[in-house]
């Protein structure tokens, strides 16, 4: 099991706490310090079953400034943007085997525990 975690995010901390309270072995990835590659982002998207735009933090200034919500932008370009600017990736992401969830709200993590 792994969590893509931002320790400055309250939702990410709450999700991590729910997992740790159950004593489960967990790999904590501080994704802003160790960003996922384009390949890793594609794997995460497949496990989540969502498109790249659905993994992006739409409130981020970088998202708005670059008009990344434009429907003419390709999925590949959005993946490139997330790989180069991990702040654009929604958090926390919890992966267990072939399944993943975005922990918003944090209790969603229970779906894969």
TrEMBL record:
Keyword hit for Oxidoreductase: yes
UniProt entry keywords in alphabetical sequence: Oxidoreductase
Keyword Oxidoreductase included in the entry's annotation: yes
GO molecular function: arsenate reductase (glutaredoxin) activity
A Pfam cross-reference name: ArsC
InterPro entries: Arsenate_reductase (IPR006659), Arsenate_reductase-like (IPR006660), Thioredoxin-like_sf (IPR036249)
Protein name: Arsenate reductase
């Amino acid at each position: 099991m792994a969590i893509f975690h931002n320790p400055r995010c309250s939702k990410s901390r709450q999700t991590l706490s729910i997992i740790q309270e159950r004593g489960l072995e967990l790999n904590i990835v501080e994704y802003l310090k160790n960003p996922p590659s384009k390949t890793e982002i594609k794997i995460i998207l497949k496990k989540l079953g969502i498109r790249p735009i659905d993994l992006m933090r739409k409130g981020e200034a970088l998202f708005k400034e670059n008009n990344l919500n434009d429907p003419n932008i390709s999925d590949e370009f959005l993946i490139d943007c997330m790989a180069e600017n991990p702040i654009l990736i929604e958090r926390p992401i919890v992966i267990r085997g072939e399944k993943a969830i975005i922990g918003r709200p944090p209790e969603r993590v229970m779906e894969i525990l």
